[in-house]
């Protein structure tokens, strides 16, 4: 089956003709960062609990701590710190997975998903309660859309989501990926996630999230949330307890900070972007749409303002994504390793729940790295290969060091925020057509 769907290198060469390959060097982005020291993260998280509104919670009351987003640095330490902070104040915390339909939309799958993130009962020092059962806690005022919440969380004396604030890959708004989204979609489990994404087709998540969040804050004992902001190296740089009284407003402010600090491509206009790996631990869409500039698989949402990339060639998966190929529809070409490693069931469940089925469309599959690069260069217009603006990155989250073609290396010499690490040299390939050079990061 794989061979039947894979285009051979010889076929690509025949179709594209004589395409010159660019020489590639290495450049590095210079970022000024101020991360929290790893040994201090747990204490900072515990201290952030002091900013929550817990006065109405009785002594010894149960506090449901929501966790479960992918790719967050120091997540076990942060969740464990929140648990400690709640205990120090006389409450009894438990953790519940607030991850929508992830983990195959099963309770055991969600427990396993937390474990892959390092969030186990042993690591965080408290019970983890897992269910896919939800309770209907109300509906939105105008559209009368039902609002759901995790059954265990609803029974608690207080609810505290723990999540990273960051730009979302599917939409733009005052609040995007963060505390509000975890309440609405994460805590809503599969049923709530499906409801939200169904309505997002016409209503848009940018309008829906604030309204449903407001309903949840009024209907449930949400004591606030623990907000995380990461820097360009994906290291924890800010931890803050956000009380419910300023929930939406403060999250919007922290989103602006997250935008400033998120890693970006060093150039906004490219002929070809080669991405070594996509994965759910990199981005909810496998490749961050705010980096690739491609959001064409969504409905009722504009494209990001940057970047402009003519062709994207994706080479494989992260190990943690376990074959979930959400986002591969952004690519123009894929290496045969993508086809060989994808799990259609996980990918399709994710895509249906998120109403972004175009995001898992399989792009044309080529058998080698060389074929993928030739196919990409051969379809960008009348641009000689040696003059093409080509960038190769590990993934859309690790962007400090990149392989760059000669024109980009020359442009980098004129910029203080970039450093040339190595000069352009001819590309080398193994006998099987793979790049000799390892991932840049």
Explain what this protein looks like in three dimensions.
The protein is α/β, with parallel strands linked by helices and 441 residues long. It folds into two domains: 2-32 and 264-426, no CATH class; 40-230, Rossmann fold (3-Layer(aba) Sandwich), CATH 3.40.50. It is built from 16 helices and 16 strands. The protein has helices at residues 2-5, 9-16, 41-48, 75-88, 107-116, 121-124, 151-155, 179-186, 189-203, 205-219, 247-261, 289-292, 336-341, 344-354, 369-377, 406-412; strands spanning 6-7, 24-29, 62-67, 92-97, 134-139, 146-150, 158-164, 225-230, 236-242, 269-275, 308-314, 333-335, 365-366, 390-393, 401-405, 418-425. A nine-stranded mixed beta sheet has the order 1-13-12-11-10-14-15-2-16. Strands 4-3-7-8-9 form a five-stranded mixed beta sheet, with helices on both faces. β8 (225-230) and β9 form a beta hairpin. The protein is globular, with a radius of gyration of 23 Å. The model has no long low-confidence stretch (mean pLDDT 92).
Task: Describe the secondary structure blueprint for this structure.
Blueprint: H1 2-5, E1 6-7, H2 9-16, E2 24-29, H3 41-48, E3 62-67, H4 75-88, E4 92-97, H5 107-116, H6 121-124, E5 134-139, E6 146-150, H7 151-155, E7 158-164, H8 179-186, H9 189-203, H10 205-219, E8 225-230, E9 236-242, H11 247-261, E10 269-275, H12 289-292, E11 308-314, E12 333-335, H13 336-341, H14 344-354, E13 365-366, H15 369-377, E14 390-393, E15 401-405, H16 406-412, E16 418-425
Parallel strand pairs: 1-13, 3-4, 3-7, 7-8, 10-11, 10-14, 11-12, 12-13
Antiparallel strand pairs: 2-15, 2-16, 5-6, 8-9, 14-15
